[in-house]
TrEMBL record:
Name of the protein: Response regulator transcription factor
GO-annotated biological processes: phosphorelay signal transduction system; regulation of DNA-templated transcription
Keyword DNA-binding appears in the UniProt entry: yes
Residues carrying 4-aspartylphosphate: D62
Pfam families per record: GerE (PF00196), Response_reg (PF00072)
GO MF term list: DNA binding
The UniProt record lists the keyword NADP: no
Record-annotated Response regulatory domain positions: 3-127
Length: 219
């Protein structure tokens, strides 16, 4: 039986994922968390209980969460030398986030809008210690190796700067972003300023237009 831990801040989404995996017959969800703090406690608790370095075979992790994002969690796990294999599930398009997640240490990337069978296949693949990539991601990886090096401006943003850009473009105020990310409004303002400078933009309206044109948020 493949042991899975879910981490997503939306209970309804967790339930859908849990039910999808349970229907497979060979996958069991042994724990759920709504944010990084809960996840950290759960990993420690289950690891101690089971007496194993990795308390689960696969960690299914959302990329957009309050506080530490999924990308932040990947970096933390990597820095701590954690052996847990992580599968990212996200509502964001693969062409904007998949490569970034894989570079941060993820074993795979699945879009929440995809077929349930794809999620099951991804969990099974990652549980075997193999990377899971869709044909679209595989094509992007090939192109990144063979095409001339040309980066879009937002690809030069840090993970937190990209997260700030997406949230502003989604219509959230800086105060709301600060509360959701558990940061001070001043810190969020610094991230916004860096994003504007790196993208050569001047205001939130231009940020929103840029994000829509580049598929970072839905129009």
């Amino acid at each position: 039986m493949i042991r899975v831990i879910l981490c997503d801040d939306h209970g309804l989404i967790r339930r859908g994922i849990r039910d999808t995996l349970a229907d497979s017959g060979d996958i069991e969800v042994i724990g759920e968390a709504g944010d990084y703090t809960e996840l950290r406690g759960l990993l420690h608790q289950l690891g101690h209980k089971l007496g194993k370095d990795s308390p689960c075979d696969v960690l299914v992790l959302d990329i957009n969460m309050p506080g530490r994002s999924g990308l932040d969690v990947l970096h933390v796990l990597k820095d701590e030398g954690a052996t847990v294999r992580t599968l990212i599930v996200s509502m964001y398009p693969e062409d904007q986030y998949a490569i970034r997640a894989l570079r941060a240490g993820a074993y795979g990337y699945v879009n929440k809008g995809g077929e349930p069978a794809s999620l099951v296949q991804a969990v099974r693949t990652v549980a075997q210690g193999r990377k899971y990539v869709t044909p679209e991601i595989a094509q992007m990886l090939v192109e990144s190796l063979t095409a001339p090096v040309t980066e879009q401006a937002h690809q030069k943003l840090s993970d937190r700067e990209l997260q700030t850009l997406v949230m502003i473009a989604s219509g959230k105020r800086l105060s709301d972003i600060a509360e959701e990310l558990m940061l001070s409004p001043k810190t969020v303002s610094v991230y916004r300023a860096r994003v504007l400078e790196k993208l050569g933009l001047t205001n939130n309206s231009e940020l929103t237009v840029y994000a829509i044109r580049n598929g970072l948020v839905a129009s």
